Amino acid sequence: MLEISELLELNETIAKDFFEDLTYPWEVFEGLEEKIIQLGKSLPGEIYEYRGDNIWVAKSVKVAPTAALNGPLIIDEEAEVRHCAFIRGAAIIGKKCVVGNSTELKSSILFNCVQTPHYNYVGNSVLSYKSHMGAGSITSNLKSDKSLVTIKAGSEKIDTGLKKLGAILGSYVEVGCNSVMNPGTVIGSHTNVYPLSMVRGYIPANSIYKNAGEIVLKQLPDSED
Description:
Blueprint: H1 4-7, H2 32-42, E1 48-50, E2 55-58, E3 62-63, E4 68-69, E5 73-75, E6 80-81, E7 86-87, E8 91-93, E9 98-101, E10 104-106, E11 109-110, E12 115-118, E13 121-123, E14 126-127, E15 132-133, E16 138-139, E17 150-153, E18 156-159, E19 167-169, E20 174-175, E21 180-181, E22 185-187, E23 192-193, E24 198-199, E25 202-203, E26 207-211, E27 214-217
Parallel strand pairs: 2-5, 3-6, 4-7, 5-8, 6-9, 7-10, 8-11, 9-12, 10-13, 11-14, 14-19, 15-20, 16-21, 19-22, 20-23, 21-24, 22-25, 23-26
Antiparallel strand pairs: 1-2, 17-18, 26-27
């Protein structure tokens, strides 16, 4: 349930090789800055522009003049970084992603076609292909007692060894407006989270999260003969 093969579409990120030989998505954060720098140095100059300070931006990217970019950072083709976005570094933004107005992003990997379009905070997180965070939704990446993050999935409990860990979103996840994903939240692919939710632990794929006591599986249409 929590393994990379269950959650992420690795063919939809320039950082695919970062996950090689790993089991869980959050293991990618070890040495992430250096991984990004080495990848950036290998990118073709005809497609990517080097902007100094370990920042590589594809020439087809739209970056608002008010956005703040800090490295190490790679922004892939046809992405858009909007007004007053704040990217603090150690980040990869995939193809056709949207980092919206006043969104803050750090130590995270956004796969292709991810949208964080309005007033979002994304820290120490991995957002897989076509996941979407509604306006004002955030990833909380530090526990109030500053202890290490543990992920719980049913009877399974995994110590990550990380003090800071936000959320892992599977592909096609939809997070409702003004929701908070507590440290170590893992949401399976094709799951929808209601607005104003406070999410914790593992939420199965193909679910609808209404509240902590009401998580229902989606009713999939019958296949046609």
